[in-house]
Amino acid sequence: MSSQKVVIVTGASQGIGAELVKAYRERGYRVVATARNIKPTDDPDIAIVPGDIGDPDTARRVVAKALEAFGRIDSLVNNAGIFVAKPFTQYTAQDYAAVTNVNLSGFFHITQLAIAEMEKQRSGHVVSITTSLVDHAIAGVPSVLASLTKGGINAATKSLAIEYAKTGIRVNAVSPGIIKSPMHAPETHDALGALHPVGHMGEMADIANAVLFLETAPFVTGEILHVDGGQSAGH
């Protein structure tokens, strides 16, 4: 088995996920990248697994691919997520199902399988990408389904950190503000930037750097690291 570390990144086809794949490769990690629509790569140290992360079968295939291709799992980044901004009473059953499928089921199944493998080697790290809207709701940005699901992941992060504290497995989260990514059209950037005390949006590299900081911080577990331009501190 190679001693080169291996990370699984969900939601890896674009935006923050693609930035995370690039950042981990630059650190010498092998990467298992998964998303619904993800293109093949020529990099032999990146394994691609297409699929719906909310489907337990996708989670099984991702973990199996990591073990088959690279022989180990050292880290998991739960980056996959969807955000539906609607007034609470206008959410449909389809909205609820879609958000809980990706944000909750997509966290649960892959994390359970990855931690089971990490337990065998008595080391590992799980990082989940959540949102600072959990801590600081913003007038005009309806976000109940995001808070319901990502808030649950923040709570689960602390619970898992304590459950596995003595096994060598750390569990943390990064809680972003609004990040410049393909999710947000350029013409919205000024208005979205104004929602942050620092006056501008974050960059995708800010989130990748935060994840890599946690990766290299062995005494940090159960942490919800806010990378949000001051949003969670106040206005």
Automatic annotation (TrEMBL):
Listed InterPro entries: NAD(P)-bd_dom_sf (IPR036291), SDR_fam (IPR002347)
Molecular function via GO: oxidoreductase activity
Protein's UniProt keywords contain Oxidoreductase: yes
Source taxon at top rank: Bacteria
Keyword flag Oxidoreductase: yes
PANTHER family: OXIDOREDUCTASE, SHORT-CHAIN DEHYDROGENASE/REDUCTASE FAMILY (AFU_ORTHOLOGUE AFUA_5G02870) (PTHR43639), SHORT-CHAIN DEHYDROGENASE_REDUCTASE FAMILY PROTEIN (PTHR43639:SF1)
Family stated for the protein in its record: Belongs to the short-chain dehydrogenases/reductases (SDR) family.
The protein, known as: SDR family oxidoreductase
Organism, scientific name: Cupriavidus campinensis
Lineage: Bacteria, Pseudomonadati, Pseudomonadota, Betaproteobacteria, Burkholderiales
